[in-house]
Amino acid sequence: MLFNSIIPFAEPITTTENDRSFFDPSYTTTSLTANKPSDSVSHKNRSQGATGSPLSSECEVWTKACSEAVLGLAKRPENVKWLKSLRRKIHANPELAFEEFETSKLIRHELDRMEVMYKYPLAKTGLRAWIGTGSAPFVAIRADMDALPIQEAVEWEHKSKVAGKMHACGHDAHVAMLIGAAKILKSREHLLKGTVILLFQPAEEAGNGAKRMIGDGALENVEAIFAVHVSHEHPTAIIGSRPGPLLAGCGFFRAVISGKRGPAGNPHHSVDPILAASAAVISLQGIVSREANPLDSQVVSVTSFNGGNNLDMIPDTVVLGGTFRAFSNTSFYQLLQRIEEVIVEQASVYRCSAMVDFFEKENTIYPPTVNDEKMYEHVRKVAIDLVGPTNFRVVPPMMGAEDFSFYSEVVPAGFFYIGIRNETLGSTHTGHSPFFMIDEDVLPIGAAAHASIAERYLIEQG
Known about the structure:
By secondary structure, this protein is of the alpha/beta class. Helix content is 32%, strand content 21%. The protein has two domains: 64-247 and 368-461, Zn peptidases (Aminopeptidase, 3-Layer(aba) Sandwich), CATH 3.40.630; 249-362, Alpha-Beta Plaits (2-Layer Sandwich). β1 (117-122) and β2 (126-132) form a beta hairpin. α3 runs parallel beside α4, α6 (273-291) runs antiparallel to α7 (329-349) and α8 packs across α10. The two termini are 33 Å apart. Mean pLDDT is 89; it is low at 4-41 and 43-56.
């Protein structure tokens, strides 16, 4: 995720399982039967209920007791220990976008042990697993897998073993929570009134992982999709979301303004791209301030300006660039259009030419992430049952961006945050910081949230 800060909104909730033990490499999930991992395209279930019997009654109609049963499964001490071990393995071995081969192998190994079917690969390293009846309705839950090119500065036993790479955005926790949800759902498979699709996605940070997953069939038959992102702004296990626009659309631009090189002492012998570029920068500021509805949040920021380093020469070209953001597709693509028009036309005023690149071939454009109102309401109900009404908050929109937005353009979607902030542990740093860390007590809560969202959706939509 491309991060901006969010407003903190609640006090931490108390969790009943406070297991902070370090990972024991010999530990395995004793309730599962080991199977060798495989790279084959599809794996079939060999038995029902491979992960043990559920704690609840049939849950024909979802009640708070069903939520408590799911949370109880997630917070069993052996499951908490297992979730932490998974997250720590992934954290210590970070892989960048489309390089998540070992992460994917670990996921497949765990799914094999649970006897969960999956298709691999999608989008090079991703996979699509499924649990349930194999028939409609189909609901998807997604986790991103990639790390960032950052050198970890946190000193702890499970620090990144790979120089210059770090899980500085919590995707290691996202994967662990989704694997945890798979275990819960598998144990309750006989209760599912349809099919849960689990998407393990590469390259969220690169901006095109979601698009490639969709192109490879990740959303086939899917009628709704949900995802969670950890947040350092919110106390551990607090859940937050909002209906409608949640995260901004984000794009980048690079413009090359061309003139004619000449001596600075005789500017009339040149065509000055510095002057043209300066005028373009000033004019770009008027797009938001004078063309956008003040109630429609938008941003255009020029962040780079390079005309060379010869103090006695007017250069041939100036390169400038920056970012733009908006909360609706209409506003977002209007900004894109106007940025190009303003730069090109301003350059022409000063006898220069200009070309603007929005990196569309590199898939660095993220549309806005928009929560469907019904899907948001579903997340809200699930969260209140799991963590209580005082521990769910309606959060403000933020200017960060997420490639989950590509899914939300195709099917109704619900994106939500779960807090990881714990001052005692030092988990207070923003995503993409070398000091980023999480409070691992969030892992069973996140796994239970995923599982409850999916199972309850099938009951209520089936």
